[in-house]
Amino acid sequence: MDIVYMKKQGGDCVKKYIGILAVMLSLGFLLAACGDNNENGGEDGADGWVENVTILTGGENGVYFPLGVAMAEIMDENVDGVSATGVASGASVVNSNELNDGEAEFALVQNDIAYNAHQGEKMFEEVVDGFSGVFTIYPETIQIVTLADSGIQTVEDLEGKRVAVGDVGSGTEANAKQILEAHDITYDDISAEWMGFGDASTNLQDGNIDAAFVTAGTPTGSIQELAASTDIRIVSISSDKIDQLEEEYPYYTREELDENTYENFDATATTVAVQAMLVVRSDLPEDQVYELTKSIFENTEAMENAHERGKDLTIDTAQNGMSIDLHPGAEKYYNEQ
After folding, report:
1. Which end of the chain is less enclosed by CB atoms within 10 A, N or C?
2. Topology of domain 140-275, per CATH?
3. Which regions in the chain score pLDDT beneath 50?
């Protein structure tokens, strides 16, 4: 009896072990399937949603940074299942490459840089098109800043001078090259210095450079700080050169700065501008981009509080200067308005 009982008990144990093993295998397949669902859409959200969203901005002294941080806070507070962060970066060209490589989910870029990336031209050696448009926000003015007593009156006067041309690979540097080339000036004709807005402002104040290219919405924080302590000049671009730039680069538009743009700036300046825009990784799910886009337009007051240029974001102008295809999620949102 005991032997028979032990054999029967042993058989039950085997059955139990087999049952447990089957359950574990089923769970394993289920987890693997869930992992496959997230592989193309992001980290750990349902239906491929990316939970940890990064927005690449620009230098901390520019306009991109406060606006990008504000957008991240809006997403974080108003969209369930999303934790968003705005981070400082090297701006447009760097942002385009990093977004294309999957290093972030959103980024602020200039419309000209986005266009060049998708074409694989100018500063891009190959097509960089892993991102789509969400909306344009405001004109970014190319400002050639110098001290009022520098003697620099025209772009041609930059020859032989120490000139900050922006961070390496930034949209500012791209604009600097194009404007200099329109005046038959190359880096060989100047002493080029690569630095962001904040460093350029400090170096202008200290006399380490003579002028700086700054592409940003006005008023730009770093220039405001400089103008608060010394008289400045924004160098104008002549009308014929603006016509030339607009013909060669259709994303440029003429921009006028008046005497109220900055403190200790008692003149006017004529220059060109591009558009600041928000772009998103193309492989983000349509419904996630829809919800994130919606959250921003329903909370624009946070953008306005972050920077004066936040007031420029409206549904009516969101596609002005859009130089690349919209993400389907953003397009869906606009079609419903």
Report:
1. N
2. D-Maltodextrin-Binding Protein; domain 2 (3.40.190)
3. 1-11, 13-43
